[in-house]
Pre-mRNA-splicing factor prp46
Amino acid sequence: MRFHDWRSGHCFQEAETIAQPGSLVDSEAGIFCSTFDRTGFRLITGEADKTIKIWKEDDEATEETHPVVFTPSLKKNY
């Protein structure tokens, strides 16, 4: 999964899911659907290996441990 800032398009975080043991790793490593829970703090995914996973934000993450290095470009690609 890749998380992007919707205004700039900057990818600020990446996460990999772990396939369920016994699954065909390459063909069953996809995510079919995702939604947030009612609080908006947890991401729920339905995956190709027939699992449902619940993701939460890292409570210990700070600007020092996870710095965002981003220099926006004013160049437009048409």
Residues 2-56 form one domain.
